[in-house]
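Hi R.,

Here are the chain sequences for the assembly we discussed:
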Amino acid sequence: MQIELRGNADLRKALRRFAPDLEKSLKIEMKRGLAPVAKAARGFVPSQSPLSNWSGRSFSEGKFPIFNASTIKAKIGYTTATSKPNRQGFSTMARVFNDSRAGAIYESAGRNGPQGQPWVGPKGPAGNKFSHSLNPRAGEQFIAALPPLTGSLKGRGRLIFKAWSLDKGRAEGIVNKAITTAEQELLKRSKANSLRSAA
Amino acid sequence: MNYQEVISIASKFDAKGFKQAETALGKLASTTKKLAGAAGIAYGAAAITAYGKAAVKAFAEDEAAARRLTTAVENLGIGFANPQITEYIANLEKSAAIADDVLRPAFQGLLTTTGSLTQSQKLLNDAITISRASGIDLATVTDDLGKGYVGITRGLIKYNTGLTRAELQSKSFNEILGTILKRSAGAAEDYLGTTAYKFDVLSVASSNASEIIGGSLVDAFALVGGGTDAADAAYAIETIATALGKVVVQSGRTIGVIPTLIKNLKNLPKNIFSGFAGKQFGVNLNIPDKKEEQKLTLTEKKQQELLAKLEKDSLAREKERLALLNKQNTAKKLQSVIDKANLALGKGTDVFDLDKIQIAAALTNQAEALGKATSAAQVLQIANDTARLNVKRSINDLEDAIASKDEKAIINATAKLNADLKSLDALTGQNTKLADIKSILDSLKPKELIDQENLNEALRKIKSMLDLLASVNAQSQAKVPTSASLGSGIPAKDYIAPVSMKDALAASTNALIEYADAAAARANAFADLLDLQNAADLAALQASSLYDNSGALQSFRQRESASMGNTIIVNTGIGDPNAIAEAIDQVLIDAQQRGTLRGYQIA
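And here is the predicted structure of the full complex:
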């Protein structure tokens, strides 16, 4: 029986139905590659807020997410589940994510420039593309207080991207090799004998 | 969750992109359809024009075919039957789904060939059946049947009749047609249930529609063109088409007007163009209504008489054709016989010329020579010459028969010549056979000179003598079978060497048993041979003079048999009789004491 795998979802579905052992092995192998990245990324989270006023207060009512190291660390992780296709039709086999709001700010602040977003003031046009702070240099001062961005082949950042950069492609190699191996093994099995659906 | 920071690994393209592409293609197709719809108006105008021309052409061809058939029927003198023929063609067209364009020429061909209305209809129906069964087009089948009807059956071989070419030539058309129809039975009915038949029905309907439309167009456009026939219509169509084309090129809006224009034109009187044109020139161009042609109508009785006459004439022609065919066949047969005779004649003449036999050697002289013959070689020579003379005589007889054109005489003479040539061949080949020589010599002598009964009696006596001699010889020369003459094939002093201990140990038990059986069988055979040899030796001894005459052996045997009595002869010298008696008595007593004396009582 010949099978045609189009996209990650098909491959994982085929593995899950016809070769559960391969699926399991794939997950374990991908975990072996991704877990160190996530762990390293968590290690880059400072225990204290880099800015004194970013740390939370008990009576704080601001909308800006407060820095909480444990929350940020808890929201950094990895997954080996296949994602849904994006608008362009691409899906991913595995991801390392930094899922908290404060973590995302810490990760990405300064990507558009050291000055931050354009300042429009509190009465300026609405939208998250502008700085509505009273301080016109708020963005610049905020970025300056953070550690520098670290560039990687996937983008620039301070947590997961930094960890990815320092990993020097080992994780990606492990994951890709695991996927390729699983795919080839599945095709080999399909040529050797007809596959049976797993119960 | 726009804030989520993710590193994606092993990204692949998935099906969603295809959906986007499909959507894009769908939009493109929709746009194309709209464009095509717009352009289709212009193309549609051209298509309508082309269809119009084709329809006019179809109508013209159909009309011409109908006229040809009408003329052919009128030439046969049964013009009154045209409506019935038209109806027959129309019905056949509907039932068989074959266009009248095909049926009319086919029927016309058959009608002119057979000269019979009923025969033509029958043959056309048969042709349809055969066409359905064989897949060959109706025109070809009809043509072949028409030719076959007049005796040219060569074309019928393609219908897989199973008949050879020779059979096709020798059998009548009706027989061949019967064979073909037998093989094609049911094909026409079966075809009615096929999809091809349904397509044929549609095709015929479409063709008829085209013809009808073509007829209407001819009428309409001919009036537009200022005439009445198809040429005027074609001119008008082309002119209008050219104008339409220009209009399409100039502006698509004009196309939108055309339906309205056509609708309006449709409501106008048919000959308004003529009237309009005529008024321009001050003449009346209105086409007068065609007057119905006045034809003399025949009474039904007269029609039936004409039809009967037609059939009668057809039958008469068929009879004439068959008579001519028979005459041709008879002539061919006679010619064949003559050819065979000429062949034998040529062969006989060749033999005669080669051997250079003198004709002067008359048969009577040969008979006299036979009476004087003293050796077998002379008899053979005489027989040879006589055979040659017989060949010459048969040649003369055959020439006479050919000259008289008597078929029976020719056949008999040819057979006689062949028989003589056969005898001559036998003699020439030195394969002298008593029967051949006897038959030749018998022909020389008058039959009354030979007493067959005496000859048979003599032969019987000779045969019995020969049988007697043969039996005597067989008895005298018969040999008693011996070991050498029995044909056992076993050479003298032959024996089977005993198996060595080494071989015996190496061999299997079965092999040893088999060997022992073979040795025992061979020993038994030798024993049988030895018995036979002994029996043969005994027989030879008994047959010898030593055994039969009073020789030493017999005297011995006789003496031996004599001793079998109760007399004991004791050869003693001359002595005291009492001593002798005592000695005898002592011997007997000793024997009795030993227990070896029996049957004697000693006192």
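The beta strands of chain B are 5-9, 12-13. The first helix of chain B runs from residue 16 to 75.

Let me know if anything looks off.

Best,
T.
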